[in-house]
Amino acid sequence: QVQLVESGGGLVQAGGSLRLSCVVSGSIFSTNVMGWYRQAPGKKRELVAAITPSGTTYADSVKDRFTISRDSAKVYLQMNSLKPEDTAVYYCNAHLLTSASSHYADYWGQGTQVTVSS
Questions:
Q1: For residue 99, pLDDT beyond 90
Q2: Do residues 66 and 86 touch, judged by C-beta distance below 8 A?
Q3: How many angstroms separate the CA atoms of 52 and 62, rounded?
Q4: Burial classification of residue 3, based on how many CB atoms lie within 10 Å of its CB (0-12 exposed, 13-18 middle, 19 or more buried)
Q5: For the range 107-110, what are the long-range contacts, defined as Cβ-Cβ under 8 Å and sequence gap of 24 or more?
Q6: Could you report the per-residue pLDDT of 14-58, keeping only the tens digit for each?
Q7: What pLDDT shows up at residue 56?
Q8: CB-count burial class (<10 Å; 0-12, 13-18, 19+) for 2
């Protein structure tokens, strides 16, 4: 069984910083992509940042403010210069292959709330 557990969310004033962490555990054979998504009230879930063996990608709205990094089975999102519009539930995502499967699949964390006050 694969588990993704996020931490690091909270309430911060505009201009502040937060660092999200996600730990992936379970019988994992290979991880292709790891990333962070967010969903604000009344909006669709959107990609914030992703990291692969080839590099990183960011949503235009967070470029130059957010940085994604990975350390083995952990993925981080450093968020600087936060804005009220960054307020959302942030979800960790991993596209991986388990030891019990023959194909890659997406796995999700439970989400962590980030609230940026103006």
A1: no
A2: no
A3: 18
A4: exposed
A5: 107/2, 107/4, 107/24, 108/4, 109/4, 109/5, 109/6, 109/22, 110/4, 110/5, 110/6
A6: 999 999 999 999 988 888 899 999 999 999 999 999 999 999 999
A7: 97
A8: middle
pLDDT digit string, tens, across residues 58-75: 999 999 999 999 998 999
The SS3 of residue 59 is: coil
Structure tokens at 74: 């952990």
User: What would the two tokens of residue 28 be?
Assistant: 């994992």
Name residues whose C-beta falls within 8 Å of residue 95's C-beta, 6 or more positions apart in sequence: 31, 32, 33, 34, 104, 105, 106, 107
- Residue tagged 């959302």 (tokens): 88
Sheet with 66-71: strands ordered across:
3-7, 18-25, 74-79, 66-71
Type of residue numbered 64: D
Specify burial of residue 29 (Cβ count, 10 A radius: 0-12, 13-18, 19+): exposed
